[in-house]
């Protein structure tokens, strides 16, 4: 067995060494292609054990992170599969009546580097989204959504629609909704904008995709909070931007004395000032002004991601960066997905006039538009004051559920502690009270899923090696009648595993 393992290791090293001399691609892509070639040419046959990441890292003089990136791509193509206790096994064979497990892609052109970049950085948080999992972050109290009001508005739409309205619509020019969102923002956030500046999108991730493609070239620098949304990290990595992570303190992102140098010339800074994700810090007024000054000095754009601002501005409302900015360099992101329900797929961007034509052109060539019926029903939902009444209901119910979740969680485990913070979002962060490894965090997430419980990894929100470990719980989507049962079940799993 040792001879066979040595042979396999030598062949991979040989393929990688040859390929690395001929290619200028990233090291993980070269290794991915080298192992893929060994599999497709039957040097590595079906069910073969791959060398461990540690052995490969030592033999190839690469980091384990690089090895794991290559393995991730092979797993995504189903060329290898992870197996408990056995590392990774080759998964490539062809037999009668069983079909081909992996494409013989030698007959096709290579996938682009950008395509590979998106493939590598694909993040699917809270997997198995079609199943009923408790404590999934990003969900509002779905059980109190006014289904009958929404259904009634939708019925009126289809009752009155004319056949001429069924033709192709412009990407983002359904003015009734845009006008109502402008009025809504004026009332609840003191934001004044014109409907022409507002683009309707399916959510924040689409917003970031459009903005990134409009502004960033490969290697351009982007400043982000550390930690932040994993999908924010993912989209900027996929665009192949150079990410500069900066820490946060009790006032928000720390720009002063940062490691940014003049040569990097960042084009963007992404922040969550109303309610930092995931820790819930509200950015101070002074820090908001510092960001605007920094952006002016660096000729950069600011992305103000104002997710769940409706939850965070109930007690202390500070002016948005957008309203403070006098140079029209702030891009404001909002979404209804996190306060109504995720299937609505409805968000918006306020775009600086300088970028409107460019972003609209990219939208025309990619995502086209959000369903007009959803847009017009949402417009009526705002206009008839249903949104305001629903938000009042969400705040009441979410606060009750947060208190109950905190109480039950703290009473039943001491291995994690929920962060102390005023009510400001629909999720809570619990951090381990003793040192743990990332493997322990991930193992607990797997054990949760076996019991139909889901949480997000806190460590996934960090971009560098200095991470905090714990979980992000979406408490607000769980009815109080179910809360006690599921929290006790979850804390039992934690206590047994952490013994």
Q: Your description of this structure?
A:
The protein is an alpha/beta fold. 43% of the residues lie in helices and 13% in strands. The protein has 17 helices and 16 strands. The strands form four sheets. Strands 5-12-11-10-9-6-7-8 form an eight-stranded mixed beta sheet, with helices on both faces. A four-stranded antiparallel beta sheet has the order 13-14-16-15, with helices on one face. A two-stranded antiparallel sheet has the order 1-2. α7 packs across α14 (372-383). The longest helix is centred in the last third of the chain and has 27 residues, at 386-412. Mean pLDDT is 88; it is low at 95-105 and 124-130.
Summarize the structure.
About 45% of the residues lie in helices and about 15% in strands.
Q: Strands of the biggest beta sheet: in what spatial order?
A: 5-12-11-10-9-6-7-8
Question: How many strand units?
Answer: 16
What structural class is derived from the secondary structure elements? alpha/beta
- Give the amount of beta strand, in percent: 5-15%
The chain-level mean pLDDT equals 88
Distance between the termini: 36 Å
Contiguous helical run count? 17
> Which residue ranges are poorly predicted, with pLDDT under 50 across at least 5 consecutive positions?
95-105, 124-130
What percentage of residues falls in helices of 4 or more residues? Answer: 40-55%
Largest sheet: 8 strands, mixed
- Give the quaternary arrangement of the chains: single chain
Shape from CA axes? Answer: globular
User: Mind telling me the C-alpha Rg?
Assistant: 25 Å
